[in-house]
Design a protein that fits this description.
alpha+beta, single chain, about 160 residues
Length: about 160
Amino acid sequence: MSKKSDSSVLLENRKARFLYFLSDFMVAGIVLTGTEIKSLRARNASLSDSYVYVKEGEVYVANMHIAPYKDGTMFNVDHLRDRKLLLTKREIRHLENDLKGSGMTCVPTKVFLSHGFAKMEIALAKGKAAHDKRDAIKEREGKREVGKAMREGVKASGE
């Protein structure tokens, strides 16, 4: 039997798209323990309020909550510990230069599985002002109303 190629999204940080302008997306591997990956596969995790930082030439994600595995024993680790991300030296240098003094931050946007390994999509983020958030809400509500009108139009013509 061939090895299954599972590229399924486990977590998404939808709040990040609302709060920030996102750019320069990168994919990084995540260093996890055995019980953490089991808990992650069960979707017992959250990306809200998490961020990425560079320290001594290494990249870490902070405040990513992975709930303790229910069947884990002494092997469960702290649910809010900083987890190391795996990037190339070139990508780390690029990220470090972009974060230095520019008012930018780096946030995780997705966690997914690729060939059995946990990966995280990260993006450079610049905060949105209040009026930008209002524009996003207006746009979302407009799309919802158009979709509703189209569904009602289809129902009316189908009867």
